[in-house]
Description:
alpha/beta; homotetramer; Low specificity L-threonine aldolase (chains A, B, C, D); Aspartate Aminotransferase, domain 2; Aspartate Aminotransferase, domain 1; lyase activity (chains A, B, C, D); PyrdxlP-dep_Trfase (chains A, B, C, D); 340 residues; globular; pyridoxal phosphate (chains A, B, C, D)
Amino acid sequence: MLYFENDYCEGAHPAILQKLMETNFEKVPGYGTDPYCASAKEKICAACRCPEADVTFISGGTQTNAIVIASMLHRWEGVVAAATGHVNGHEAGAIEFTGHKVMGLPHKNGKLDAATVRNFCATFYADSNHDHMVFPGMVYLSHPTEYGTLYTKAELEALHAVCQEYKMPLFVDGARLGYGLAADGTDVTLPDLAKWADVFYIGGTKVGALCGEAVVFPHGAPAHFMTMVKQQGALLAKGRLLGLQFDVLFTDGLYEKISRNAITTANALKKGLAAKGYQFFMDSPTNQLFIVFPNEQLAALEGKAKFGFWEKYDDAHTVMRIATSWATKMEEIEQLLELL
Amino acid sequence: MLYFENDYCEGAHPAILQKLMETNFEKVPGYGTDPYCASAKEKICAACRCPEADVTFISGGTQTNAIVIASMLHRWEGVVAAATGHVNGHEAGAIEFTGHKVMGLPHKNGKLDAATVRNFCATFYADSNHDHMVFPGMVYLSHPTEYGTLYTKAELEALHAVCQEYKMPLFVDGARLGYGLAADGTDVTLPDLAKWADVFYIGGTKVGALCGEAVVFPHGAPAHFMTMVKQQGALLAKGRLLGLQFDVLFTDGLYEKISRNAITTANALKKGLAAKGYQFFMDSPTNQLFIVFPNEQLAALEGKAKFGFWEKYDDAHTVMRIATSWATKMEEIEQLLELL
Amino acid sequence: MLYFENDYCEGAHPAILQKLMETNFEKVPGYGTDPYCASAKEKICAACRCPEADVTFISGGTQTNAIVIASMLHRWEGVVAAATGHVNGHEAGAIEFTGHKVMGLPHKNGKLDAATVRNFCATFYADSNHDHMVFPGMVYLSHPTEYGTLYTKAELEALHAVCQEYKMPLFVDGARLGYGLAADGTDVTLPDLAKWADVFYIGGTKVGALCGEAVVFPHGAPAHFMTMVKQQGALLAKGRLLGLQFDVLFTDGLYEKISRNAITTANALKKGLAAKGYQFFMDSPTNQLFIVFPNEQLAALEGKAKFGFWEKYDDAHTVMRIATSWATKMEEIEQLLELL
Amino acid sequence: MLYFENDYCEGAHPAILQKLMETNFEKVPGYGTDPYCASAKEKICAACRCPEADVTFISGGTQTNAIVIASMLHRWEGVVAAATGHVNGHEAGAIEFTGHKVMGLPHKNGKLDAATVRNFCATFYADSNHDHMVFPGMVYLSHPTEYGTLYTKAELEALHAVCQEYKMPLFVDGARLGYGLAADGTDVTLPDLAKWADVFYIGGTKVGALCGEAVVFPHGAPAHFMTMVKQQGALLAKGRLLGLQFDVLFTDGLYEKISRNAITTANALKKGLAAKGYQFFMDSPTNQLFIVFPNEQLAALEGKAKFGFWEKYDDAHTVMRIATSWATKMEEIEQLLELL
């Protein structure tokens, strides 16, 4: 069975497991105060060229989104996101559970643009009844987006500008950030994110870790952030588990290196599928391909290859997501291309 | 100054004040257990032809929406509403504050239709990831809608059917219900609402009361509803204030009679404006007219007539809402028409 | 039937109803922006000798407590209160519903003392794990307390000092404030409250109004307080109803005058009961008496006099609360004393 | 440095790391639907002799408490706990953040007894105002308690009985359950917990895992539990990480075996300290010892041994917690005894 359903189907990069083994019986303090967390933070700050950043490790993406958003919004504010944003549609109402509205705006291939946000805010403040409404309090992006698309540096800068104008922090969900940074043609780097975002996270779960996301606040975390992390249940007693993984991932460029593998294999697959005449539902430069398959073909593939359901295309066709990852081997791509 | 900004600018129908005076020194028990609440409930049940209904009085509309919705949804559910619904845009996030998502769907003149809701639910349940999403748990309508439009009996029945199909209670916000029931050409009556809705409320604040909405649960209220009302801060110690007002409004058809006045005056105004060639932004059969004015004319009207801002039409024009009410006098209409 | 069950069994002071009648057809703007609210605020500021105070009107006590507390606490903070405080035991979890812990401390006759609060805070901050705990973020008192007892000026000053020391606002629930201010022997005045509290409210519901509490922030309200009031469902469209009542109550010392009536009648009753040898469960200087009755006597009184159940005293006796109010007549006291 | 500060200072049992290595590149589905979760569930059901139990894995204790409690309480209910319970004091208000009150009752050495709970509930329901109060909706225990003490089977049975009587589920927090089950003299087994509790969890984080708690619902989980877990941010994409660890821990009695190690080492330490005349703050039969130290001695120990601060005893003495774990070696005990 060729498994391409998602990018979290394997365990962790072997260097992580190796390091877990080596350090297993060291006795370290809990709750993120251990030396591995400290070392990982230092390395992440260096990679972001932002020595004064605050870095916190949280075990998963939905949790990170809910914690970051709830800790940065005021009571009267909601979070602005693309209507297709993960926080709007695929987190079981985790944001609303903390009392905040997600304000879904129109998108282009999963991306929010600065003009859309500016227009939304301008209309809001021009409405004389806006004190009876939810204030736009923060902008949420993901990079890559739900559709695997990427922002350019200029787009991030423009979004940053509108956020500054309306005093909203800019939050970038980087659950798949590695794959965004490693994509061909992108001009966005970690230091760019640290420059234009008020908070972002570097995804581990989908990029080589067993679990864990590294939240970076370039200008410092909100007061009492740790207590809020605890209040939302996310403060692991053995914080070392998260710190150590990021320490390994940010040693000797491992994070970049393994992220690149997902891109290389995705590119090979894309080329192969294009050559075979497959229809791409949209163009995605990262590790997720969205392909329109005849339903009959999908039925025939059952038991042989596994993709992720994306959406119905028409009565006879379905859009499927094929994901590569840090762990995908080129021979798996070859086998898949043979099969298709 | 001719004041047509909204339908809550006056106090209460004089019969209410009269009754408050007469009964002022009677000593009655608190928290809605007094004889006026009991009498009002009985009269409302009779008017709804629904003797077994549960009726609760709450002081305002936003509070009622937040209480009803939060008491009927499960934790994993959100409320489906027209994107223009009051709960989605104009209640400062009161629903999200209770932990629930408002799922805004496309509308036609403020109305939600059964096919849109069915399609939304069918797509939701067809998505194999729906356990990671917010479940549609309730449908919210208002009658009249934000745009003063009305559902037909057939439309309500169709919405009821889709709600039954997907096991969602149907909730009708009747903040301006009197004006809906009294409109020309409507075929929807109170007993119809009691038949097709699982919960609805009869607006008092905008229809002759100082404050108060009567929430009707035709099939009985949720368990411990009173404790939830208290928990959301809405249980008035002097519940008599709300009960007595509805007791008066539901005596000798007063609610209907005064609601009709808003329609008669709105109709006269509509006729007059049409004759003068004014542009109607949309056709609204109830007590709110939406008229496109040149900005210059609005400037000239300042200090002479007051309308409600609705939205910008274009750079030179603005849509304004002109509202009549139970208290509007025909001579005010005449004066306004002279002025325009 | 002699009704002494509570102090909210009558309607409103007749001057309020009179004013409602007189102003009924004036057309005024909504949501608390009307001239009656403005006038009432001005009069309350004057009475508090605090011209720069912010005043907001909210319809009931539980709602006011929930709104004030939730608007002033940070996410990581709870509210410190006497274990017997209304917010801790009798509001159906309204505070917790907004996400905050009520931290109940030991009390003396319903009163919290400064040393208890200081000790609690000192212990909290001395605990090296306090970042894993709920921070004490505000102190809640009621004046009079649940037991009708009163703070002295010196006690309030001491509580203010500990609040300053630990950067906690001091909140005084004045649901029955009039009766506290009018009590014999108290040295606490409205300007004292404005001096020592960061926020307090002047109860209307139990002191002559149909509904309504006036929240006073001597140093200004929290940012966006009005939007938070709306978000918790408490912004009445016809704000005039609340403003007008307080405007009347704060005209010509009416609030003081009618508050004093409750004290005069309570004192007469107290004297009479003492003369007859009744056992006082505790000494309360305001409008509530707590008397230990043999259960047999209570059975005999049924249908003749109505008191409020307070608590079981022993198998043969029950503590009952007898409440007077602004509306109690001296002849009712005489009749009750005859009966007992 | 001899490190005895807590029982989560090491990594995981080597067999877990070994298995992580072996299975690392297997591609398995996400969100707890993998074969390791399935296998672990089966083994846990067998160990509990409760084949129909529902088992869910969650990464940490506070999160588990918040999720279980919020998923089982109704809106109008709170959770009854010992005042010293972890949920009441040490989780930064995580329960209140979900909208529920923690009702702290008096305890004996950290234990809640059935009579206290019954009396609390009886008083609650006897109060005619209880609809204005938070209903007791669930009972929370921990086994071992915060003080390392244990319930007997008879005590659990009695608590179960009062829970049944008042229709409250009984929840047992087993963050250190292994150490409770392995203690000398206990008569409580896993099948007993499955019999008397409605939900409990088997702690992994403190008993040999990197992270993870196994929540067991002997009579089935609440409807849509998985969606609620997601909504609270706790659904790990790589659920295999949790499942695999419990699969290893419940293979060949590993969980019991390693739990016993903590007891054996704690017992040796206890014996040694008693022989040396140390003062025990309380008697704890599990892996935590609470010892009263002179402050001078603690100062002298700095840099040589690390214990956990428990509380101030008097001006010259401090209570310290010394914790052993699954990983403590007997020679560390010997070294510590030599030092003390």
